[in-house]
């Protein structure tokens, strides 16, 4: 990590509203004294907790700096090589998709809904091709080879029990009274430190204050004019048509079939078209999704974002449309969520938040806590991961009502992690375990999930801890 020097820390402190609030409080407290020594300042600062506030503020600045670092290379070399292969595969897929669009233009009766570069099934199929490597490296000796699992990859993993322990507090959450909700509202309005905002997001966020909490957490709460100007510039660039726009329009049309999001179709599509033209994404995204190579003599290159748009990308935008009527706010929140978190769901990596790591955690928990279900699904040719990959990659959007999805977003911010998705996927499988154990083939399983169903955040959390 590149360390900030003292001057940089001071500059960032001065750009914070809380710094000037602390300074004002200090000035008011010591204003009547003729001579003020260092000891006087220290005593006063300690007595009214200014010292603690300043320490938290500096810690906040250092944490924000660390979060913004981009992960370009993986510590495991074969994953870097795999990312190159994945990129090459996507270029081939792009050529196929482009040819399909040409065929449609020539023949109006030829309609093919599969106009996307990749989806979650393609991604999982690619992850399955990984082979266990570097078995002799001491760093990974504590990870045992499990031949009965879909992903046989040797990477360092967190303890599955530690993830279960981390979110167990959610089992005890109760409905809050009005006075407690009002107290949380005031906390959100007055708080600026990310650690404190994370604590609020872990427990309960009132619907009316969620947008403000997100804006504060991402440090956008005093930047609306800048956000508006940046978005306007991107909108102007949309007048120049890109091939990718056609894919996004198809994707946006599919999300419009969801009764919760059809009214937002235009906003979602506008956000996505601006997104693939946003040059700042490449420098702000936490991890590269593709390796960024330029293919010689290719008709198309990677968008300026550094990665290809994928099927159902519109799902990540849709729930945020409930937070604001201002499209530049919706876009800013979507961009930040994607650059910090959702990018890991599409990246070949050994990071804890990566799709590979999350998948392996789910397999580990289900195989140890529900071995009968794990084995049964294997026998009927419907592996655990194949069953929940859609819910995992798209954060249950489309499977839960928007308030429950936004609770997932809260939890992601609250723990600065995607691991809540592991808990929810395990809960999802446990909820339908009785029916799944009766299924005799993949068709039976598909029938179970084709039926009208309703999944809720708290309900799936409860099921995750049942054995």
TrEMBL record:
<feature type="domain" description="Rab-GAP TBC">
    <location>
        <begin position="313"/>
        <end position="437"/>
    </location>
</feature>
<dbReference type="InterPro" id="IPR000195">
    <property type="entry name" value="Rab-GAP-TBC_dom"/>
</dbReference>
<dbReference type="Pfam" id="PF00566">
    <property type="entry name" value="RabGAP-TBC"/>
</dbReference>
<protein>
    <recommendedName>
        <fullName>Rab-GAP TBC domain-containing protein</fullName>
    </recommendedName>
</protein>
<dbReference type="InterPro" id="IPR042507">
    <property type="entry name" value="TBC1D19"/>
</dbReference>
């Amino acid at each position: 990590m590149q360390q900030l020097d003292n001057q940089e820390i001071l500059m960032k402190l001065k750009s914070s509203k809380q710094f000037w609030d602390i300074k004002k409080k200090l000035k008011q407290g010591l204003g009547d004294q003729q001579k003020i020594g260092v000891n006087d300042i220290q005593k006063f600062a300690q007595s009214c907790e200014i010292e603690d506030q300043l320490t938290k503020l500096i810690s906040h600045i250092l944490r924000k700096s660390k979060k913004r670092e981009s992960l370009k290379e993986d510590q495991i070399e074969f994953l870097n090589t795999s990312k190159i292969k994945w990129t090459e595969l996507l270029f081939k897929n792009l050529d196929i998709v482009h040819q399909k669009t040409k065929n449609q233009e020539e023949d109006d009766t030829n309609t093919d809904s599969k106009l996307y570069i990749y989806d979650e099934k393609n991604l999982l199929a690619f992850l399955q091709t990984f082979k266990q490597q570097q078995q002799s490296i001491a760093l990974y000796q504590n990870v045992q080879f499990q031949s009965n699992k879909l992903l046989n990859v040797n990477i360092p993993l967190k303890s599955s029990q530690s993830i279960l322990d981390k979110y167990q507090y959610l089992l005890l959450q109760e409905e809050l009274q009005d006075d407690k909700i009002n107290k949380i509202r005031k906390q959100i309005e007055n708080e600026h430190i990310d650690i404190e905002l994370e604590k609020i997001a872990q427990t309960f966020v009132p619907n009316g204050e969620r947008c403000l909490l997100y804006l504060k957490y991402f440090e956008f709460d005093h930047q609306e004019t800048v956000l508006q100007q940046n978005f306007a510039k991107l909108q102007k660039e949309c007048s120049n048509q890109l091939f990718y726009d056609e894919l996004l329009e198809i994707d946006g049309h599919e999300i419009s079939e969801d009764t919760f999001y059809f009214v937002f179709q235009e906003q979602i599509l506008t956000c996505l078209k601006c997104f693939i033209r946003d040059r700042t994404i490449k420098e702000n995204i936490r991890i590269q999704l593709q390796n960024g190579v330029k293919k010689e003599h290719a008709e198309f290159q990677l968008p300026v974002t550094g990665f290809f748009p994928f099927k159902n990308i519109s799902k990540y935008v849709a729930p945020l449309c409930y937070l604001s009527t201002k499209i530049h706010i919706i876009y800013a929140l979507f961009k930040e969520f994607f650059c910090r978190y959702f990018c890991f769901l599409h990246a070949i990596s050994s990071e804890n938040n990566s799709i590979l790591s999350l998948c392996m955690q789910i397999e580990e928990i289900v195989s140890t806590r529900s071995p009968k279900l794990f084995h049964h699904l294997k026998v009927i040719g419907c592996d655990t991961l194949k069953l929940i990959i859609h819910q995992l990659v798209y954060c249950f959007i489309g499977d839960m009502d928007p308030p429950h999805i936004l609770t997932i977003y809260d939890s992601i911010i609250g723990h600065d992690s995607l691991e809540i998705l592991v808990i929810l996927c395990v809960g999802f499988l446990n909820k339908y375990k009785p029916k799944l154990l009766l299924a005799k083939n993949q068709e039976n399983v598909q029938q179970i999930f084709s039926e009208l169903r309703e999944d809720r955040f708290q309900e799936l959390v409860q099921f995750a801890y049942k054995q």
